[in-house]
């Protein structure tokens, strides 16, 4: 059995739980949503570049849920496998062996969301 999760299922499950939090913690979740929007919208860097940075941080932070959401968004934004592999290379450079392990998760997520 693989230790790499189904990223489509992960994103679905986390989304369901965050919807529940929106009901019980609306102020917090609205603020988080605004933060996410502000942190990824086009500015000096385009949205796609900012999502690539977020993915690198997700890999370094060893957050499979975050990897799932950011790769899903990047696929929707038209990322190529070569672009993904470049950002993975930088994440591995900065995070060493543990980042290498989570970079493989990002590749699996890309394959899953691209299919």
UniProtKB/TrEMBL annotation:
Pfam family, one: CMD
Matches recorded under Gene3D superfamilies: AhpD-like
GO molecular function, one term: peroxiredoxin activity
Residue ranges constituting the Carboxymuconolactone decarboxylase-like domain according to the UniProt record: 26-108
Coiled-coil ranges from the UniProt annotation: none
InterPro entries documented for this protein: AhpD-like, AhpD_core, CMD-like
Protein name: Carboxymuconolactone decarboxylase family protein
Organism whose genome encodes this protein: Paraburkholderia dinghuensis
